[in-house]
Amino acid sequence: MKKNILFTFLLFIFSVLQNICFAQNSFEKPTVFTAQQIRDGASIEGESKFYDKDNLAFASPDFDDSAWKYMNFTSKKAYHKDQPYWIRYYFKIDSAMVNESLCFNISQLGASEIYLNGKKIESIGKIGNAKSTEFRIKNEVPALFSLDNTGVNVLAIRFLPITKTKKTVVNYSPIALDIELNAANDFLDDKVDMMQGFNFIAMLICGIFLALGFVHLLLFLFYRKAVYNLYFSTYNLSIGLLSYMVLSFYEMTDPDKINTYSFLSFLSIVVFGASLTGFVNTLFGKSKLRLKIMLGIAGIFIILFYFSAALAVSFVFFYIFIAAIESFFLIIRAMIRREKSAFIVGGGVLTFFLFVIMLIVFQILDSLNIVDPDQLFGDDFMGYALGFIFISFPISISAYLAWEFASTNLRLVKQLDEVNRLSELNLKQEQEKQQILQDQNDLLEKQVDERTFELQKEKQKTENLLLNILPHEVAEELKENGSSEAKYYDEVSVLFTDFVNFTQSSEKMGAEKMLVELNECFTAFDLIMEKHGLEKIKTIGDAYLAVCGLPLKNECHAYQTVLVALDIINFIEERKKTNPNALDIRIGINSGSLIAGIVGVKKFAYDIWGDTVNTAARMEQNSEKGKINISESTYQLVKEKINCEYRGKIHTKGKGDMDMYFALGNKTE
């Protein structure tokens, strides 16, 4: 037993000495990265050559750095001066990664210049004087490089840190400089997938809660006595703002925005707690003093943040905890007292706390290696649980507000019935006192009112039908003048869509099913047009024609039209996932001038003419399944905002060879 203890102790001492003696990176003892490490992301860390002076000669691979000291350059503690520092790191790569595309994924609190084997490959921010220096937190698109041998490579980093002279309200990161060596293809694919998924979830949460917030704010403005609508509105707006701040922090590159984002995040958390306690106290609280105290504390926290952000942040989470406990207590008490609607709100709150406690328990069991939630419930368990936590309380409150609205409406209906009953009784008594002639006059007046009302309804139907056929401005001109002149528009974009193999699909599906499919697709297209401000012109069989930039001028007509096309492609792709009979589509877009106006005097229609329309049709005919084919004129208008793929010159019937492009997606996504 003693020999085992002694052997274990000696082994521990040996490993410590080995780390001290051999962990230091140098030319003689470079770090060797395997192919798997690089694909997974190899961290550049440990004791490395470090120097607190500045000289561009330090980037040379032949520079003698033997006099430099070893330092853990990732820690903030290594940097004390507001000046550039140099780090030199030696490494080798596996032969499997020779001539492969590589990149450095860098996160930092400062500005840096990256040199590889004496060659500057990347600058993140700008190192200059006090006015010209630009700090950046990360390299959004890392520079790519490759190594042609398995020899020793010298990574030299010139780094200007953000020191204590540039204060932020929060400690954004404990690490000053974090570097990973990655296989470029794997890294970029993973980064794109992660950003798309994260952005979608964050913006979905943000959009849902902001929409709920504005809806209930409008309800409060229309009915000021329902103060709970105001609190629920701010509750949803705070969640929407917080989700947007999480996304902003994730995508942030400029450290100057840390203070602003930190304050907005702090504000959303404070408003969340204040609105929660305000809503529950308004419904179930008996003491107005407690509500005033909780709201006053929230205001004090916002003021305290200006003087001591760290202290304010420390207290605000305790405030959220107290608000949650108070809300839980008031709702449970209301349920015990069998107060109206308590079970509706209480069900959501209990579900909220149940999922929170369940997550905590599973995290504890997972940390003790007793239960693995991913194996037990699947990889998406945590996401679903967090989703239930997010929506359980708002759903229960929305259910309560719906119940309250229905109850109020029912009371109003009963009161209206009583008023009608009394009115009928009074009218009967009055009618007995009036002469027959007066009764006839009343009857005639009633009939006139009814006919007038019916005429107004029919007139409104006629106007609605006219607006459904023609643009609003053209309809107004037609009503005022009795006619409408065709007009010339010099800057518009025309969109054509067509379903691929429509005839074969029609024979396969049958006319009735095909009609249903077309109706559902074109209905969705109409909504997409309305969303982006396009004017639907007509449908021709399975083709759909729309235009942007008329009758009202739109400077972004080409960009808006491409966005519509992207939404249509996304709609068709999503539809194909659930509908095996969904049709494939191709789209063509062209920009230019045309003439638009009314055709005929009977069964008239609003239509467009010109070479721009014909060219748009050619773009659609030369497109491919699931693709958006745009002309040269459209490409020149959207190339700064839309990722495009040049197709070359393609021969077009009646037009000759034309430059064409595939629109792939928005550059901001």
Note down, in words, how this protein is organized:
With about 675 residues, the chain is of the alpha+beta class. The protein is about 55% helix and about 20% strand. It has 17 helices and 19 strands. The protein has helices at about 1-20, 35-40, 185-220, 225-250, 260-285, 290-305, 310-335, 340-365, 375, 380-435, 435-470, 470-480, 500-510, 510-530, 555-580, 610-620, 630-640, and strands at about 30-35, 40-45, 45-50, 70, 85-95, 100-115, 120-125, 135-140, 145, 155-160, 175-185, 485-500, 535-540, 545-550, 585-600, 605-610, 630, 640-650, 655-665. The strands form 2 sheets. Strands 1, 2, 3, 4, 5, 6, 7, 8, 9, 10 and 11 form an 11-stranded mixed beta sheet that branches. Strands 12, 13, 14, 15, 16, 17, 18 and 19 form an 8-stranded mixed beta sheet that branches. Strand 13 and strand 14 (about 545-550) form a beta hairpin. Helix 4 (about 225-250) runs antiparallel to helix 5 (about 260-285) and helix 5 packs antiparallel against helix 6 (about 290-305). The radius of gyration is 35 Å and the shape is flat. The model is unreliable at about 1-20 (pLDDT under 50).
Radius of gyration: 35 Å
So how many helices?
17
Oligomeric description of these chains = single chain
Structural classification: alpha+beta
Strand content: 15-25%
Annotation, overall tally of beta strands: 19
Largest sheet: 11 strands, mixed
Which percent bin holds the helix content? 40-55%
- Average pLDDT level: 81
Rough shape?
flat
Distance between the termini: 63 Å
> Could you list the spans in which at least 5 consecutive residues all have pLDDT below 50?
1-22
